[in-house]
Every structure is written in structure tokens, then in C-alpha cells.
Amino acid sequence: MKRGKESWEMTKNKAHKAETYHFQAAERILVDANVWLFLYPPAGAPTSEWSHDYSSIYKRLLEAKAKPVIDTLVISEYLNRYFRLEYNGGWREYYRDFKEFRKTRDFANLASDAVEEIREILKIASLLDTPLTALNVDNLLEPTAAGKLDFNDAVLVSCCREYGCKLLTNDEDCSTGGIEVITALPALIRACN
pLDDT tens for residues 166-179? Predict the structure, then answer.
């Protein structure tokens, strides 16, 4: 099922300050990969100042019995970023490039850890089926071609629209698309207002 033409440039998202947002029971929250990385970071990545904030926010989400959801795009982004953070943080000096690193036993051990983290996430979050056939791909490509929106962000925003989810994110680029976002990032809140 395809939706009508979306006007990404003209429809700002409504941003909620995550620190004061009141999650509701059964409310579906699509958690972005950047937030999962704060909650389940790679061992070799430096601890982010955001980790504490989003841990507290996520705890409140669960206590309110809101429903965290995840889709394949978020899982893919999480894993790819996890691997890159680890590579840049400690393996870059041993392997000349990332593709070489992926072929090693060191990577296999790291990948095993990352997959275990995804399994832990899947114990808490529900899978959201987000087939591209349900989205208007042409309208996702337009803002991408114009340099106005990252394609993955456009897909996430469209999935939130299609399936009635709010997006918990720390990505300033998620300011348009006409959905509700929940964030601790002041720049995203400003961009939506």
C-alpha cells in the first residue's frame, strides 16, 4: 500500500523533550539505532554523555509499559555502527582497512558480541515489519536526491507514519516528515520548532 505524496520540506516533526515526556501504556516507540548504541554500546567505544540520559529515559518508557519497537533498518544501522566504532576505537592500528578486519577471527569475536547485544534488545523490543512496498519509495528518494534527508532517516520517519509510532532518536536530521519525535538533543528540538 502506498501513501500519497509527502512534503518532507514543509512538514516539521513535533519534538518532545525526552526528559519530561510522559510515556503512555501501549504507546509504540520506534527506538533509533543511535539510542540503542547509548543503551547497548560496544565495549571499545568511549562512554557517551548521552548514555546516562537515554538509560533513564528508556527506564521510564518501560515503567510506563510503552512498547519499544525495532525494525531491520535499525538493526542494520546498529550493527554497522557498532563494528565501525570498535574498528576505529581499537582495531584500526592492527588492520589496514575495515574490509580486511571483517575477514579476521578478531572481527568474528566482535560480531558475536554485537549479535548478542541485538538478541538482548529483541527480548525487550518488538519487531516492526517495514516492507518498502508499504512506503512510497519515490517520495523517499526525492528529499534524498535534494540533499534534504538521509534515505534511512526518511524510511524511519515513513515507518513511524505508516505504523503509528513515535521516534525516540538523538539524530538532529530527523526534524521533518510530520511525525512526533522524542529526544534529549536540544538541536533537534530547536530544528522542529
Answer: 999 999 989 988 99
CA distances from 32 to 50, 89, 124, 155, 171 (A): 14, 22, 14, 12, 8
Exposed e or buried b per residue across 62-72, where buried means at least 16 C-beta atoms within 10 angstroms of its C-beta: eebebbbbbbe
pLDDT at res. 12: 93
Cell, residue 121? 534488545
Domain extent, residue 39, equals 14-74+124-192
CATH number, domain at 22? Answer: 3.40.50.1010
Q: Where are the beta strands (DSSP E) in the chain?
A: 14-17, 28-31, 67-70, 126-127, 166-168, 180-183
Q: Looking at the domain assignment, is residue 183 inside a domain?
A: yes
| DSSP state for residue 65 in the 8-state scheme | T
3-state DSSP assignment of residue 129: coil
Task: Determine the Cα–Cα distance for residues 155 and 147; give it in Å rounded to an integer.
Answer: 15
Residue 9 burial (CB count, 10 A): 13
